[in-house]
Fold each of these.
Amino acid sequence: MKNRVGIVGVGQTHHKSKNTDCKGQELISIAVKRALESADLTMADIDAIVIGNMDHFESINYVDMWSVDGSGGYMKPIMKVTTGGTTGSAVGHAGFYHVASGLFDTVLAIGWEQNSESDTTAAISTCFDPITEREFCGGAIGPLAAQYTAYMSKYGATEEDAALVSVRDHNNAALYNPYAHLRQTITVEEVMKSPYISYPMKFLDICPRSDGACAVIFAGEDKAKKTVERPAWILGVGDCHILVHLADGIGLANLPSLERAAREAYEMAGITDPFRQFDVAELYVPASTAGVTWMEALGLCEEGGGPRLIRSGVTNMVGELPINPSGGVLATNPIGATGLLRIGEAALQVMGKAEEKQVEGARVAVATGFGGCFWSDVTVLSSSTQLD
């Protein structure tokens, strides 16, 4: 890596199920303006832009050019990144690499989605082979349900374990995050009584579809230090896409792509004891069940230890390792921005700018992205340029 890279600005919209006040370009503009204001920068300070969404959802081609009125990218290099559910985290990693390589000094990364303008399930379903995959993969819910069924059978997890994750994330959003889409406190009993969508997942176990956008500003070391007092330094990134067909993941109890991506990011950052070294985590948990099954892939517990970890309460806001203080994906899911929100929220934590959702003393954080054929992205951030 040629240059150290820090995040100096983060901006996001207020997210909702249907934003009738503005269209996609305006959502993008709001996030960009808030990111620039947070770093006291203007578009003149931005060298290049990376932008992404699930472009086949809104049926907008060449979103990089279409979005210029919102992104402010007139006469600037603009790159589009679209990688399914990991679009947001991939946009963030592209922004990081553009600066780390020395190609640009300051890069604006933007993720957005106006889900109210699309049919998510129809778009996802028609991506699959109609003979071999449609029966199992009519949208994103079926494969996640199948995975938790396998995990329950192998490790003894329960539906109540997933409900604890749902309660944690929904309540964090309600109590601490004014930008979140869903802001209503819930109980385990309410989760368990909500209707089944695909056994063993129920209505309150599953993320919403949101309209919203997020923008994150990446800067080289010298620029970052001059821009803000405490940048969020990117210490490590990892990516792993291992499956060709979504049906290949049917029966998997765990998430090997996340394990490999985490290993790559941890090696780059110098993480050897994730649970002890991380102060906070912003994880892409599209269903509460994933908040149980994927903890071991991140090295936060032993194999099959997800239920014990969740039941112990250590991942709650007052616990040893708070997970998703923002409420995460279960509360807010503008798909093209969702992974970038995880990076942005983790950055705010180590910058000490997370306001009501700030974890006291947070210095090292991890953010993840998830999508498509069970692929994964991992980002390690710190308030220092290297681990102590």
Amino acid sequence: MSLLRRLTLDKIPSCRRPAVPDAVLAQAAGIVRDVREGGEAALRNWAERLGDLEAEGSLFLDRKEIERRAEELDGPSRAVIQRAAGRIREFAERQRTCLGDLDAPIAGGRAGHRIVPVEAAGCYAPGGRYPLPSSALMTAVTARAAGVERVWLASPRPTAATLAAAAEAGVDGVLCAGGAQAVAALAYGAGPLRAVDVVAGPGNHWVTAAKKLVSGDVAIDMLAGPSELVVVADEGADPAWVSADLLAQAEHDTEARPILVALSGGVIDAVESELARQLESLPTAAVAREALGQGFAVVVGSLEEAGRASDLIAPEHLQLSVRDPDAALEWFRQFGAVFLGEGSAEVFGDYGAGPNHTLPTGGTARYTAGLSVLTFLRAQTWLSLDSVDGLVEDTAALARLEGLEAHARAAEIRR
């Protein structure tokens, strides 16, 4: 039996799935409201009720306690976290240096912008089936590189590895809770945690629902859903490597979507054989096998067709396992992040090669980008006029076209 459905180009399904089921959104609204109104007591109630926290357990950890618990992690593991943090930090800091202030001459004076960070960020690192210290690094290290003054991390039942990542990122505190209750606490404050300006980081439906609910009161990075990977493979691609990449994505979640766009039917046959072989020894095979059922394979006749297929999906991750990936990239426009060549595996991006792994899903890569220093920055514009010649007349005329006489007079008084 085929592990990947075989489709034609015209039958590719949309990946534009709702980020949050309506039932989850309705239930999350009650939790968010409770925490917003009830503060720390309500937060603790939900955290204990939903299994984030044992009765009377520590809900908040300060920097001293974070470091103490992080020291429980063995030295080699902590060294790995430090190296990954260093690569993420270096890339984020280089992104930041690309974003400069603007001071430009205009008629009558000068105008420009300055790039400034938000004051406080709330970062989320999942702690469910797979605790993700890598997400703590991707969010908190990036916020610090952007220049954010106050950074908190929320994670349910944080492991020593997650706390080591928090310590390495230099967070100010850790909230030992997850789900909608944690997002609400970040957005509105609870106990020693004061409300933040941006909530960022991946999570389950409850996290995503809460982010949707608090958006507008605070900024959010995105509404992320189940993970996606499109691998474009030609006849020169190694089927074992392609299969390994698809399975790495598939083991995330039963709702993950691994997709193969192949330049020939023989590529699909070879990958199918490898998938079956590798699944035999994969500890997460049950999850991965179900996720493969969410994906599919399609044969295309050219890289141009491959680009059309991929752009219909606008995937979170795009892997170009082709002979000349740099040249091939011209055919691909819609994706969260691209990995050029089969040696540049998506998993290296997951675990700190440099660029961020928090990326748009569900087709939203058509209009938004992944988490970066930009998530935590604002462009504040400014205007300085020495002369208003010509501006007075045009401003007054436009104001009167809109029926706003006081605007017109505020311009004309400056003649």
Amino acid sequence: MQACAGTHVNRTGEIGAVKVLKTEPVQDGVERIVFAAGAAAIEATQRTEDALSDAAEVLDVDPLDVPETAERFFEEWKARGKEIESLKEELAAARAAGGADARRSTSAGRRR
């Protein structure tokens, strides 16, 4: 495995902080690592921290609880979506079984 950032220094301390921003597959077995170094790494870290703090504030939880809370909210959202679809199907079945006829006769009675 090799890594080259195109900068050669006498010691790694000259580079400062390094933050991996993302990895991208280039070809089988080869990944491109996108990173920031020095002041840019500190700025990238601060942006991440700010985003986490904003999410924690919206969710009204501690920043460390954001992942678990977001996952719970997502699961609840999916469950409610399934429940809505189920209720729509039940409503359609009820209408098909005669519920629509009862509604039409009630509406017709009001027109007179």
